[in-house]
Each structure stands twice: as structure tokens, then as C-alpha cells.
TrEMBL record, chain A:
Signal peptide (residue range): none
Organism: Lentzea waywayandensis
Entries under InterPro entries matching the protein: SoxD (IPR006279), SoxD_sf (IPR038561)
Gene Ontology molecular function: sarcosine oxidase activity
Protein name: Sarcosine oxidase subunit delta
UniProt record, GO biological process: tetrahydrofolate metabolic process
Matches recorded under Pfam families: SoxD (PF04267)
Automatic annotation (TrEMBL), chain B:
The name this protein goes by in its record: Sarcosine oxidase subunit alpha
UniProt EC number: 1.5.3.24
PANTHER family: AMINOMETHYLTRANSFERASE, AMINOMETHYLTRANSFERASE, MITOCHONDRIAL
GO CC annotation: cytoplasm
Cofactor: NAD(+)
Classification via Gene3D superfamilies: 2Fe-2S iron-sulphur cluster binding domain, sarcosine oxidase, alpha subunit, N-terminal domain, BFD-like [2Fe-2S]-binding domain, FAD/NAD(P)-binding domain, Probable tRNA modification gtpase trme, domain 1
Domain SoxA A3 stretches: 464-546
UniProt entry keywords in alphabetical sequence: Cytoplasm, NAD, Nucleotide-binding, Oxidoreductase
Family classification: Belongs to the GcvT family.
Cofactor binding comment, as recorded: Binds 1 NAD(+) per subunit.
GO molecular function: nucleotide binding; sarcosine oxidase activity
Automatic annotation (TrEMBL), chain C:
Origin organism lineage: Bacteria, Bacillati, Actinomycetota, Actinomycetes, Pseudonocardiales
InterPro entries per the UniProt record, alphabetical: SoxG, TrmE/GcvT-like
Name of the featured protein: Sarcosine oxidase subunit gamma
Domain of life: Bacteria
Amino acid sequence: MQLIPCPWCGPREEAEFHYGGQAHVAYPEDPSALTDEEWAQYVFFRENPSGPFAERWSHNAGCRRWFNAVRDTRTHDLLAVYRVGEPMPEVIA
Amino acid sequence: MTFRTPTGGAIDRDTLLHFTFNGQSYTGHPGDTLASALLAHGVHEVGGSVKLGRPRGIVAAGSEDPTSLVQIEAPFSEPMLLATTVELYDGLVARGLAGQGKLAAEPDPARYDAKHEHCDVLVVGAGPAGLVAALTAARSGARVVLVDEQNQAGGALLGVDEYVDERPSAEWVADVVAELKSTPGVLVLERTTAFGMYQDGFVLALEKRTDHLGFAAPEGVARQRVWRIRTRQTVLATGAHERPVVFADNDRPGIMLASSARTFLHRYGVLPGSRAVVFTTNDSAYCAAIDLAESGVDIALIVDARHEAPARLATECAARGIEVRAGHVVVGTEGAGRVTGVRIGPLAPASPDITVACDTVLVSGGWNPVVSLFSQARGKLRYDAELGAFVPGEELSTVRVAGSATGELDLNACARQGRDVGSEAAAAAGFAPGGQVPLPVSDSRCTARSGLVLWRVPGDDDASFVDLQRDSTVADVLRATGAGLRSLEHIKRYTTIGTAHDQGKTSGMIAAGIVAEALGVELEDQRPTTFRPPYTSVSFAALAGRDRGELHDPVRVTAIHPWHVAHGALFEDVGQWKRPWYYPKPGEDLHTAVLRECRATRESVGMMDGSTLGKIDVQGRDAGKFLDMLYTNMMSTLKVGKIRYGVMCGVDGMVIDDGTVIRVGDERYLITTTTGNAAKILDWMEEWLQTEWPHLDVHCTSVTEHWATIPLVGPRSRDVLAAVAPSLDVSNEAFEFMTWHDTVVAGVPARVCRISFSGELAYEINVTAWHGIAVWEALMAAGEQYGITPYGTETMHVLRAEKGYPIIGQETDATVTPQDLGMSWAVSKKKPDFIGKRSFARAENNRTDRKQLVGLLPVDPSVLLPEGSQIVETDRLPEPPVRMLGHVTSSYPSAALGRTFALALVRSGHERIGETLFVPVEDALVPVTVTESVLYDKEGARRDG
Amino acid sequence: MTASPLAAWRDRLAALAPVLDAAEQPFRSQLTVRVSDPDAIAAMGSALGVQFPSAACTFTSGSGRFGDVEVLWLGPDEFLVVAAPDLQITIEEVLRGALGTVRGSVVDTSAQRTTVVLEGPKVRDVLAHGCSVDLHPASAPGGTCVQTLLARTGIILQVNGDDRVTVLVRSSFAEYLAAWLCDACSEYLAVA
């Protein structure tokens, strides 16, 4: 059972959290202005890197806050967590 | 004949325990294992082998034993336990297994448990290194947990009669344990095996708490407990396992590891046999030979594969009349069941030149550090050529290794490592050194270093067993390498070596060695197989813990639940909720009860418990704007006092939920969600608010369980409501459809909404959950004169299906749009954007052959279509593949329609209205007519009563 | 006229003595407050006579015009105000008044959760059978308030003292919680 450091509550067991996929994928400003392909890109396509990956988590069973985390997809190690709105920190994988 | 020594061993000789093995009665003593008690009676043969049916005995004294699998039959049937780890108790009934046991057919009456524990330093293993490490950490003030799989601390010291600090080692062990147990913040767990090591210092350990008490196990006490330990630093002092050398017919009962025989002698006072041949590649077996000789075993010969025997030990042997033959090996054994003799010859070429009669063969091929947990912690392993084993090959920041688990086999050095590592671990956890622990000094004469690495003696490959439990031989390994396999992982799977209960504790290293030899590669270049949890077998019962029976999954109940139970409701599971399914009267089955409930509701009045509906309070200046983005239809224009039905979609335009939105105030709404999606939709709302639109002034709060919700349904509902809410004007003019009023119902503040999920005149009465049951009872009393009928989810489903109202998750499956459901009316054309809108313009969403919601009327009105049935176009099935047009989503007999009907998702369904399609049911194709989804009261005349 | 979620469990909870003194505290006034503006938070605190907790995972308590009031930290802009029964309507009004036109919300959630008070020297041990948060007094001193999981249900756990803990649980999960507590205590009762 991995520990995930909630930026508010501190480290808690993974079971308290909910995964939210890739971070920093903004809802398009004006969806109607997008081509079908551009819209499909937003709806269906996400990165799948081997290495550090910025993703969203929600501390569901705790403070219910969404936050961002950089996780190394090769090891599951969480390299950094940061609050929504904060820039992605530099990480060393 | 007894093989019990007259004195010695940590057993209680004054107490006799009776047990039964393979139908025979035996006796033993407290302190015995089943294995030691059997050996005391000269019983070596425990079971047969899984594939070949060869007799098998007891190879080792502990959890590394590959062979002694037994089935406990009393007190409770339990399969696949090792005789070497089953502590003996009075009345034990067991039988030997041939690799396969049998699960009990009846429920296990024992209790199982789990407990979380947090510490600064976890020490695994209470041998000399672990004890010193734990004491060092404890003296620094750290929170320490020490776990050990044995029933007493001591580790390797338990199997020898050596002295520590010039007194019996048990005294030194007892002193250390006593100090640990009396130190605050220290937890010592015996009979506890750390079986899994995971990320972030998470270690699972199984404590066997009352197994050893057998029939005397106290009631109420959990038999086994899974400790969920979260530690900052870990010290692995997991020791080493002796490994054998493989030779022809090396699997006969009576052939065991030399150190294990020594353990049986010193710990249990048991001799392995009368006349033994010792076969070794290192010094340690000499001590076993000498100790056994001094206890009366005739050591026929020590066969040492090394060219020269160790001088000092050879002299000691000579003094006792024990012959040592260096440069020789055991090349084969004889015997029908138990071994009766060994063939011995020179190492090269390995051909027999003499045969020696014996009933016991003691083998030592060196020592394998126990690196399983280190490897599980992602530590890299390194091959130590001198030791002939994989050892920890790197330093980890939170996991340290001490003692023979590092490959160090000298006790004094192991203890020093324990102190160093215990001190480092405590320091890493932030604790300054405490009082220094004096290092124990041992008088041990034997170390295993300077051994010869020998995996196998060439011979009959088909009878040279590498994994005794899996019946896997040298021939199997060579077949694998011959077939071109090179990776140990592949060879493990091909040969099954290391996949049995013991996970290759004694066989894995040898298999790797034989593979390297066969391939002509160096073991330094071979990657060992990955060690995975569990280190030893863990029963599913222990893993389940107390999560079984009523605690298996939470049962959520509403405030009115006790009434439903008292009135004979049968319940349906909806997520974790128990919802009344229907309320059968005596003699009624589901169909007759539901027909009655439906008829009563449509003809007079019924009511149900709708409290499970999700309810979310939405407040803030931007609440309307926010809901406009979430719902496909417009919510910001809803007037205070009014209610609107709404549909939510995902960004892909597929329906995710529906419900009502009521406007409570200028900046306040209350929305409802489906029962199953309450938590999901709140999360969905928070996700958008927190991650996309944090600038919106909106806050969402779940009030699902604050309210009890009672839909009161049917033409007489107005009369019933009027009776319980005298201050409320219930007239159609004063209380319009899709409006709400705050009032008092049955003396309780209530919010009454006029909404309908049945097409009938209906009200939804909301009161705080505390008042739910009282208001329910008041409604029952007020409705008595109208024959008010409580109904369950099944009737609710029928009533709504007759009206063509979809149920999210039944009519929808994440591939269905509002348009597919015929709900274009609920999709705003005015709003510039809402979640899902852009997807409605995608080509895929505009295909004319999308599956759409329609009604199906079986041509024979008595035929009930099974839900989930496929729908085809022709009255005869063509050759496969058959084109499926869709499936039946709901199907019921209807009191109101006087016939059966169904809802279905059908390709181009809206264009097919009036067509006849076919539903395969068992062997027949049932003709059905496609209709609109609304089948009852299409004009909506009944809504106003 | 009113029924609390664990009314039927009173005797079974009482039977956990002497291991645990366990009892439901029903019908408490509870208000969920969402607010992040520091002035509004201070004003609400003044209105109640209890300052809101400023540190995550803590709670405050005090006495004011509504008697004993506790304010539980549930999130960076979320609090639960807890007071004696029958005060929820007036407290809601007072909090709304203190909030004024500032961004935030106040919702009566009194019946959303019920409260179980547990007291006894083994209370932290019992909870450790199902709670992964470190409950050692050094890690969870009095004043701690965490939202976490106890076995398979979400809870709000308030540490009131070395031997006293208050658990708030969603009403629909209350019977599960009670059943779990009884089961987790059974060994301590057998040994006691």
C-alpha cells in the first residue's frame, strides 16, 4: 500500500485517493471552435510516458481536495505533489 | 524404537501430547513440531510426491522445508501446512499430502484479524543480528517492532548448543528479549512472519496467535492476524537457509539438511536416525556430525567434496572415530522407501566406488542468504561466487540488512553488523544513539565459509531432483536450456521450479547454478528470478481478516430501514445500499407482489423509500452558471420554487447521470443524483470546480443522508398528503407539477416536491432522516383508508418503464447519448457550451444507425423477454456472424398494460417503430413489435391526478 | 418521534464495556461551512465563541452563546461546526450573518452523520485494527481531527484525549461501523 502525500493532510494510504489522469489538460476555451480532431484529442488522448508524469489525484476519503503529483511511471515513486494552480515543480527522476 | 534423546531440547518432557498422523496414534511434547514428533518415532516418510508418487520425507526443520506438506484434519480442516512449522498440540489429527490438499467444505469457525502498526525501525528476524539491531534501535528511543517467525527468539542459536558470552545462548537471548519487552515503544512479535515488503516502508506480517493451542485455542481470540506495519526504517536480519547438493535419488526420506538435523537434535531432542552419512561442501556439517555422534548417532562417514578436509575439524572427527573422505561425493542412494544406503565416489569423475549402508543422509551444499524481502523492496542482488549465492547487492536508504542474510556466517560478525545497522537505522529515523549494546561472543567452531560451490553431482538426471515439491529434475532444467531458454524467469515457469509453497527456498539457487553451468555463462551475469510476496503461505482467511459475513462490505441502510425489515420487505442490493425490492404478502412471489403494488399505486396510492437518492446542496453566486455547464439543459433560468429534470453527460457526450434540480433560492439549488452515482457526481462536480473553474463562486455539499425522502404516488396521493400536511394547499393550482413547498408534514418540517417518476400524480416528501420513520408511519396511517401500499424498487422500475423513463446504468452503459434516449428535449440549443455539447457534433454521434431507446411489445403478450437478450432482424438465424441490432434493457409484465413489455436499445430504433424484430430466447426466435418507449398514458393526463 | 441511526445499537455498544465506553451521541447540530476568507472565518469564530482551526487535521472547541461548540477542519476551506441538539437552525442563521456577502456556504448537515464517542485505555488499539492513520499519542495528540477510512467506511476521527476518541460516520454507514466496532472489541472482551 503506497503512501501518497496529500498537500493538505500529509501522507495517507493510497486507498484514500482517487486517480484523475493526466494533469494540465485544460478544458478548451471554446470547444465549438475546435475541429473534430482537436476535440477528440482533448477527450480521448493522453500521454503515457515511461518516467515522470504529472497527474491529478483527489484525496477522496480525506479532505476531498484535488492536487497534482509527479509520478515516475516506472517505479510509482511520487517525485512531487503540488496544489492545483501551482506550476509543476522541477523533479529529478 | 524412539529417536528421542534422554535429555535436552526445548521441550516439556513432563507433558505428553497425543496426536494422529496418517491414521496412526503418536505422542510428543509441548515444544515439538509435528515434524520433530514424527522423527522422534522414526517416521520420516510424510507424503508422496505430486507427479511421480515417490515417497518424500522431511528435508529441513523450518519454513524452508520443500516436502513435509500435511493436511490438518482436526480441530479444523486446513490444507498445505508444513509439518516442520506446525507446533504440536494435543488431539492434532493430520495426514501427509502429495502436493495437494483439500479446502474445508464448511465455514472456518476461527476469527481472523488485522492490525495497523507504525514504527521507526522494524527488525525482521530475532536471531543474533536482529536481536542486537532491535536492542540498539530500542535504546535510542525509537519505536521498534521486532518480528520473528519462530515461537521463540534466537534464530540460528535455537539449533545449536553453543555458548554465548560463556553461558548457554538461550540465556543471552532471554536477557535481550526481556529488555526489549520492557522498553516502552517496543513491540516483539513471535510466531510472526514478515511475508511481504512494499513501497514506503509497508510490511505485511502474519502472526499465528492460537494455531499452536489447537483445541485449547480461546474463544473470541483471533487465530491469525495480519499486521500492516508502516515503518520508516527496516532491518532485515532474515538469516540464511542451508541448501542441499543435487544427486541421483536425492529425494528419499531420511535425506535431510545437515543443519536441520542439528536443529532437530538441539531444539527438540530428536535424532534423525541411527546411522548417518554426511555429505558436505563446507565446514558447517562437521558440527552437525560431531554433535549427532556425541548424542549416539553412528556417523558412518563424512563425505567432503573438497579436495582437503579442514584439518582441525577432521582431527576432532578422528578423535571420535568418524571417518572423513575428502574429494568425494554422494553419487546415488538406495532404498525402497527410506534411504538404506549411499553410493560414494570421487568428485571427478563421479562414479561410485563404495556403497555405505545408512538410514540417514545429512547434506550441506552451503548457505543461501534469505534475500526475499530485500528483493521485494526492490533491492538489487549480487552473486557472491565464494558463497555460491545471491546476496544484497546495494544499499537502500530505508532498508538495511544484517547477519547471515548478507552472506556473513560468523556469529560474532553478524552481531556486530546488527549493532551497526540498528544504529544506522535509528539514526536515519532521527534518533541519537542510546546506550551501546555489548556484542555477544560465541564459542562456535564451525563456519560455512571456504566451502566449495557444488550444485549437483552428475548422475541420472531424471532422478536428480532440484525442486522436490514440484518433482522437477536436472533433466527438466536441461530440457529447458536445450529448448533455448536462457532467462531464469522463463526457466522457472517452464520447469515450475520455485513455484511451490516454498517458493524455491532450497531449490532456486541450485536451479540457477545448473542453468549457468548448462549455458556456460557466469552467475554474475544472470539475473535472479524476482522474489514476490508472500514469503511463506498465507491463508485467504487471514487475508480476509474480519472482512467477511456482515462485515464483508458495508451495508448501507436508510433511516426507514427498520420499518421495511419489520414489514417483510425483500431487499435488493443497489451498490452498498439495501433497498426494499418488494413487500410480498403471504403466498406472493415477485411477479404477483409487483403486479399488486403497481395496480395499487396506479389506481389509488403507493409510496416508497427514496432516501438513497443522492442529494447535493449547491450554493454560490455562480451556482446557476455552474449547473448550466454540468447539465445538458438550462438551470440558471429555473425560477425559485420550481423543479427541472436534468441530464448530465461526460465530455464525450454520453449520459452519466440524471435527476432533478430544485431551485431553493437565488444562489442555492438542491440537485438529486441516482442512488448509485451520488458519490461519483459530487466528485465530478468538485473536480470541475477545483481543477477547471476555481474562479466560480460555488460550493457543493452532500446532504444525501441528512434527508429521508418518500415518494407518495398515485391518484390518491393528494388526499393522503392533505391529511398529514393540513397547512399545505395541495390543490393543483396552488401546488403545480414541478414545484416545491416547505411545509409541515406529520408535525415535522418538510420540503415537498411535486415530481413524478411514474406518470402518476406524485409528491416527494423530504424530512430530516431522524424523522423519516415517524413520517413514513404517519403517511401509512393517513393512507390506510385508500389502501396505501408500500412498494419497492421492482415496482418503481415497472412504473417508470411503462412511461419510458430510462434508468441510468440499466438503459445506459456509457455509450448512450441523450438523443439516443429520445431526450433531445432535455438538450439545450441556447447554451453556448456545456459538458458534452461539442461531442454531440461528432460524426460518430450523428450516425443514423446508433442504438436508440425504444419499446418492444412481444407479439404474444404473455411472453416475458429476458433482460439482456439480443435482438435480430430475421425470423430465422442466418449463418454466423449474426448481426445483432441491440439488446433488451428492461422487461416486465405490466398490470396497467395487461401484458408484458420491454425497453431496448436498438440500432436505428427510432426509425424502426412499427417493425417486427426477433429476440432469441432459448431455442426460439420471439417476434416483437418496435414501439415508442412511452407505453402508458402517452398524453400525460394522469400527472395532475 | 425521532430516531437516530444507532438507536437500536445502544445496548450492544454499552456491552463493549469495560473495553470501551461506547455510546452514540445522537441529534447533534452539525453545519458544514465552506469558506476561505480569513476575515469571514474570524467573524464566524467570534459569533460562535470558538476560533476556527487554522491547522489542517485539527479541531477547536470552546464555549459561547451556543454552549459547547467544536469546529472540525475538514479541508482547506471546509469545516464542520458541531453543537448540542436543536441549535442548527439558529447557528446556521448566525453563521450566514457572519459570512455576509463573502464567498462561502453554510449547510445544515445535522442528520448526515451521527457521532459515536469511544473511551477507554484500549481505544487506540481497537481503532488500529481498521484505521491506517498512526494513532500513537505522539502522532495523534488531543485536538487531532482526521478524515480517513475505518475498515471500509469513511469516518471523521477526533482525538479528545489519550483514551477518548469521537468518531463521526455517515448515517447510512453507522450500523456497519457499530458492527465493526463490536467485532473488533470481541477479542479484548474475551481476554478482559
